[in-house]
Automatic annotation (TrEMBL):
Catalyses which reaction(s): a 3'-end 2',3'-cyclophospho-ribonucleotide-RNA + H2O = a 3'-end 2'-phospho-ribonucleotide-RNA + H(+)
EC number: 3.1.4.58
GO terms of molecular function: 2',3'-cyclic-nucleotide 3'-phosphodiesterase activity; ligase activity; RNA 2',3'-cyclic 3'-phosphodiesterase activity
Keyword Cell wall biogenesis/degradation: no
Xref: Pfam families: LigT_PEase
Record key words, sorted: Hydrolase, Ligase
Function as written in the Swiss-Prot or TrEMBL entry: Hydrolyzes RNA 2',3'-cyclic phosphodiester to an RNA 2'-phosphomonoester.
HAMAP family assigned to the protein according to its UniProt record, in alphabetical order: RNA_CPDase
Organism: Nitrosospira lacus
Name assigned to this protein: RNA 2',3'-cyclic phosphodiesterase
This protein's record includes keyword Hydrolase: yes
Amino acid sequence: MRITERNPDIREETLRVFFAIWPGDVARVQLSGLAEQLRGKSFCSGRKTKTENIHLTLVFVGEVGASKLDALYRVADEIKDSGMSAFDFVVEKIRYWKRNRIVYATTGGIPPELTGLVSTLECALSTAGFVLEQRTYKPHITLMRDALCQTLPELAEPIAWQVREWMLVKSEQTSGGSVYTPIGRWPLGI
Ligand code: ATP
Ligand code: MG
């Protein structure tokens, strides 16, 4: 957390937060192994995402004052009460964004439940006064950063897990890299 100093009379702590999904333990280890293989087999050079940090962002909220957290929890509680369903996320592809040198894993077909959850969140957050970037949602799980790739292999087998909850996560930049801490969890109906 840090202190904003825009107005010296009102100093408020801020947090960098985003809504996300964390793959199940097995899938997260498989995805991490995949990133390791990309490096080991010289497909790509770059910084591998730590296993515990492997995630799928739903909505990036950004820097918010600590006093805004209650509003974020309220938005999420209301969405939870609207009865969103659990769904399978199936990773089938590895891709590379040259412009930001990111290697990521993604799915062949975006589950409608995921599209629904993201658009419901975006809409509810905007209504609650949060200003979001207007980028089209592209589900991606970052595997490597600062990457340079020769070529990318096809995935031998899909990596899948059942998404049963979504989270609000605090992101802190430390000398050891990004540290993500869940500060709220909401279940999806099974
Ligand atoms: P770093 O920025 O130091 O590389 P990071 O990207 O891991 O660290 P954050 O920048 O806090 O950490 O981002 C948290 C998550 O939100 C990541 O999945 C990131 O890709 C995503 N994200 C960050 N900024 C945006 C943005 N402007 N729009 C959409 N998603 C974003
Ligand atoms: Mg970032």
